[in-house]
Amino acid sequence: MKKIALLLCFAIIFGAQAKIIDKIAIIVNNRAVTYHELEKLYQIRSSELYRKYAGKELAEKLEALKKQVIKDKTDELLLLEKASQEGITISDEMMDNFIKGLMKQNNIENEEQFNNILMQQMGMTLKQFKETQKTQYIARTVIQQFVINKIVIDEAEIRAYYDEHIDDYKTPFTYSIQEIVLYYDSTTKLFVENRAKSIVEELKSGKLDFSTAVSLYSEASSKELNGELKNLKLGDLNKKLEEAALKLKVGEVAMVELPDSIHIVKLIERNEPKPLPFEKVRDKIEDKLRQPLIQDRIDKFMEELRSIYYVRIDVKPEELK
């Protein structure tokens, strides 16, 4: 999708800005792009290359970009023409809701503020921005409807991939513990160690319930959760504490000393990875198998449009400045 991504993210955005009458550079049926539009797009996209490259490499990148800009603008016109013939559009209400959503996400209070931000950052008005976003939506819809949706992956192939890569589709390993935390410093370490050992002995003998011990002795914030730390993943805890906890069987207790604290840990749950049901991952696998086919199908689709519509390109790459 990289080529189309460039088309949607760059080529369309700056097309709406050209208002002055200019020489026609590209024609697709009754749609046209001017030299001014192409040069504007080239200047915007080439600025990134100037920041990244120099010398011969820069020159090669710029020459390739000139060809790409012409291709992208031609593709844009082809997609818009196809959309027009198929009746694909977007309502003003949908666009207004989209703009309101963007404003809310970015804490923009009103359209005037949004307009000022767009002028500063993109050099376009809110009205122009709406038009470019509308064009983006239409172009994406054409590609989705006439390319991506038509790529059908055989059900047997999806199932076979699931069976062959079952390890990639498993629930994560998780575990849960209950802890009692006692803090110490250099003057209290011996006292705290002895208290911790005493607590462990009472727990193992059954004289003391772990939850009761948490309420009586734990000094950590986990005390408010009955000392429980649930659904932990590997790496969530201090390495020494994690290793000690995972050596336990469910229900067993261990004492772990860390700098400044002693932890009495009980393993209360251990969840080994299990295969996810096929139905839950089927669509994800289908998308994965579809991805390598998309660009080739897009290229073929665009070639088909070129063969159907009248296309005239009156600009050469070297003319772009």
From TrEMBL:
GO terms for molecular function: peptidyl-prolyl cis-trans isomerase activity. The keyword Isomerase applies. Keywords: Isomerase, Rotamase, Signal. The keyword Translocase does not apply. InterPro entries: PPIase_dom_sf, PPIase_PpiC, PrsA_foldase, Trigger_fact/SurA_dom_sf. The gene is surA. It catalyses: [protein]-peptidylproline (omega=180) = [protein]-peptidylproline (omega=0). Pfam families: Rotamase_2, SurA_N_3. It is an enzyme of class 5 (isomerase). Residues 172-269 form the PpiC domain. PANTHER family: FOLDASE PROTEIN PRSA, PEPTIDYLPROLYL ISOMERASE. This is peptidylprolyl isomerase. Its EC number is 5.2.1.8.
